[in-house]
Amino acid sequence: MPKDITYKFCFGPWNLSEGQDPYGPPTRPVQTFDWKLGQLKRLGFDAMMFHDDDAVPDVDGKSDAQLARESKELRKKLKDAGVVAEIVAPRLWFDPRTIDGGYTSNDPKCRQFAIRRSLRCIDIANHLGCNLIVLWLAREGSYIRESKNARRSMDYLVAAIDKMLAHDKRIRIAIEPKPNEPMDVAYVPTIGHALALASLTRDPKRVGCLIESAHALLAGLDPADEIDFACSFGKLWSLHLNDQNGLKFDQDKPFGSANLRVAFNQVLALERNRYGARGEYVAFDVHPFRTTKVEHWTAHLENSRRTFLKLVEKARTYPEAQANKLIADRNYAALDQLVLEHLMGR
Questions:
Q1: What is the pLDDT of residue 4?
Q2: Which domains are seen in the chain, by residue range?
Q3: Known active-site residue 80
Q4: What is the pLDDT, as a whole number, of residue 1?
Q5: Is 51 a catalytic residue?
Q6: Hey, what's the torsion of the CAs at 63, 101, 110, 238, to 10 degrees?
Q7: Taking the model in full, what pTM does it have?
């Protein structure tokens, strides 16, 4: 395994959440963005992820001049803190106009809103010095399958992405797939779907993907396989590491929390594909448990990075020669135990 890559880490303001869930109110007080940026810097992270309205609150109510001014003020604040913006993503799932989807809404006015908001997101990213736009297609699917034409919806998605690519020739778009939640069934559930969609756009070279561990698990897939698949196309441009206990709601557990071996295999895949060698970041899209006290607010982020780095060492000391002999002998029972004992540190 390579040993020359030094990983860079990031998280987003939403990863220091206040504990609210669909069944209960917040369990921790609301904190300012400046406080969250201070925690990022204190923990030694290198970059911050943003939704467009994390960067500029009330995006739709601001003029272009206001949007530019506030974005540039944020860029200076990040520079003063010694960090950068890794990605910017349009938050299209909160607005009433996206109830039936943004890009795939049956209402053309709502589709126009989603595209207009996405172009403003690109403008924000430019002001922040960031060229990577992430599309989590949160409401691009349906609750009732007969309510939408899935074939037409693919055309809508391609048309929206094409307009974003035409708006700025420098930006890249990373599609973040998820099979369900908030939609019953999403149109782009896996990396394979995301890359197939990319191939239909006006500039496929500028359309890649972002893999989230929990989203792959929700699709019944192994995140390590998704990583290898994306990297075989040179299309893994960003990464959300976390964990997930089964096929249920998106849990955003700390990395390695539910299945350490699945986490190890993700790190193995990143190492063999030299992820990070071209400047890519490792992001932890994790949330503190609802029960977390204020004084332990950042533990889930610290623990995720600590687990990741320990697994990097496990990947770099993995006995490959011994494993290859067992593979050649088709002795997978011994290989299975070799992995377990390597992880347990016998």
A1: 80
A2: 9-318 (3.20.20.150)
A3: no
A4: 60
A5: yes
A6: 30
A7: 0.96
